[in-house]
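Hi support team,

I'm filing this because I wasn't sure whether my run with glutamine finished correctly. The job status page said complete, but I'd like someone to confirm that the output block is well-formed before I use it downstream. Pasting the exact inputs I used:
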Amino acid sequence: ESYKRIGEVDGKVQAFLTLDEENARKQAKVLDEALGKEKEHGLLFGLPVGVKDNIVTKGIRTTCGSKILGDFNPIYDATVVEKLKKAETITIGKINMDEFAMGSSNENSAFAATRNPWDLDRVPGGSSGGSAAAVAAGEVFFSLGSDTGGSIRQPAAFCGVVGLKPTYGRVSRYGLVAFASSLDQIGPITRTVEDNAYLLQAISGVDQMDSTSANTEVPDFLSGMTGDVKGLKIGVPKEYLGEGVSEEVRQSVLDALKVLEGLGATWEEVSLPHSKYALATYYLLSSSEASANLARFDGVRYGYRTDNAKNLLEMYKQTRAEGFGPEVKRRIMLGTYALSAGHYDAYYIKAQKVRTLIKQDFEKVFEKYDVIIGPTTPTPAFKVGEKTKDPLTMYANDILTIPVNLAGVPGISVPAGFVDGLPVGLQIIAKHFDESTIYRVAHAFE
Ligand code: GLN
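And here is everything the job wrote out:
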């Protein structure tokens, strides 16, 4: 069914980079044969899943949306992919993304620009735009994305689906091609909150192969989803409803708060005073980490190698010049600059300090409130080509999602109605490792 639907719509949506029909059919056959045997099967049994193309899959091309990894065939599966196999899902293929997950619109992919299924003239968001579009278009039941600075939640909002960035450390990053290692997290994109919780349940947990994965108990995420939010205290940051947020988006959030009030929750305005520094902090830190992480793509160890070089140094330089797209180069240059000897203290160290202040903002609010609620994005999906000329307006779109990554806390985007026929996302944020409360609130609201 998945392949049939992909055949029907993917010419327009362009969510998939690699389809793996032969393997998927083999997997399906094995599962078919297993049915009816003694063994019990989980709820994800046989369901079709799409995987963002920065998560490695053994023997299936993993490009990261980049020419430099255009023909890279990994020799192992990421931990999350192994876990999906254990849950007996069927991997349908690999999904388009902004190159190395840098972008907010999918227009930075070296291969194709995925379109928003609600309006093909608009972007699906990014960088996990393909993962959100594939779910919204009914091509797969659910998908995996990654979120370094909003890349699961923003596309989920633009495509009208549910996307969760788990707490940093909840899900193993082993086999996720690193962009900014202190921020990256893999997470589920689904149609419903309940599906989302099932998928998170399947991929969570400590992993020997990722020293930053947390040795924290994985609770039963579904048990709290009773529809009951009586007595719940919600903080609504005034910075999230202020300047730059469209009137209609603000109204959708206020409407959502009314629904939750009707269910017995209460809300008050709060402040995350350092939010205004989040964008600058994020782009400095993520680019610094990226400049180090992407040094490994040198034409020797992975993927693409130039034919136009006479000696080793030229080979490194030419491979990178030809292999990386403009946005990736911009980030590497910015990051290298911020980490360089003369500028390290003024930029990198300063940004680290501000990151701590941003984290403390959240901790303070969570002393009194159970969740923080606001919009996921300042506006609904923008038009293809609208922000490609000016990277700064593209970056500004991440203003409401980025603080969550800097603080390391979990956040979800759930559909909260439409503005002019385009979906709007509601963002629900909770304390570290409290995804259960997020799901409880999101499910009650849904
Ligand atoms: N728009 C963000 C960026 O370009 C998204 C990054 C992400 O979450 N992968 O850095």
